[in-house]
Amino acid sequence: MFSGIVEEVGKIKSCESDGLVIEAEHVLHDIAVKDSIAVDGTCLTVTACEKNWFRVDTMPETLRCTALGQLAAGSPVNLERSLAAQGRIGGHIVQGHIEAAVAVRTIHEDGIGQDVEIELPARLRPYVVPKGFIALNGVSLTVVDVKDASFSIALIPYTREHTNLGGVRPGTLLNLETDILGRYVVQFLRQSDSQQNILTVGASQSLP
Questions:
Q1: Would you say residue 87 lies in a domain?
Q2: For the chain, how many structural domains are there in total?
Q3: Residue 161 φ then ψ, to 5°
């Protein structure tokens, strides 16, 4: 589990057919093989590490569901170690289970911030609400507004300076994870409605 607060922006050292080698410093202080780490919001397992780099495996399903396949040597990536039990949750609960790779539509300056509009797949629309949480490239963000096929976020200067979101442009693909709590609520309500419909139909059929 992660909090969506990026600890370091690492750099891709090399891309392999089944993994990534990433240069880093801060996150390597207490990391070990088999530990989980979020790379651009994707939960991956450390398979090797040295003083200034670590390696993670990338399964075919991971490459299908994320934008990691578009990375190249030198690409910046957001890094976050798994959340310590005694740590503060500065963002929200992030699993690192990417649901879609979505494209940036537009970017507009808004005072000191940037208003960024991002495409939203129809299947994820029920889980995204204004002022709710969302994770993009592993960064915990607040949804500003939601439309039928897109949503918007506001990037403050600190986020642009300390994550790779500062380099996004129209067309940039971002790894998206919706709020797990919202997904559970929607699923619960759907199941409740389904059960209620079954009970209603059953009651009507039993009437004389």
A1: no
A2: 2
A3: -80, -30
Task: Tell me which residue has tokens 């997904």.
Answer: 183
In this structure, is residue 86 part of a structural domain?
no
Residue 92 is assigned to a structural domain of this protein: no
Alpha-carbon gap, residue 166 to 20, rounded angstroms: 22
pLDDT at residue number 13: 98
pLDDT of residue 155: 96
pLDDT score for 86: 73
User: For residue 162, how many other CB atoms are within 10 A of its CB?
Assistant: 16
Output phi, psi for 151, to 5 deg. Answer: -145, 165
Give the separation between CA 190 and CA 185, rounded to whole angstroms: 9
Query: Which amino acid, residue 164?
Result: N
Whether 60 and 126 share a structural domain: no
Burial of 128 (0-12, 13-18, 19+ CB in 10 A): buried
String of b and e for 8-34 (b: at least 16 CB within 10 Å)?
A: bbbebbebeeebbbbbbeebbeebeee
pLDDT digits (tens, 9 = 90+) for 16-33: 989 999 999 999 998 999
Residue 116: what residue type? V
Range of the domain at 141: 100-182
CB atoms closer than 10 angstroms to residue 126: 15
Spans of the chain, pLDDT less than 50:
none
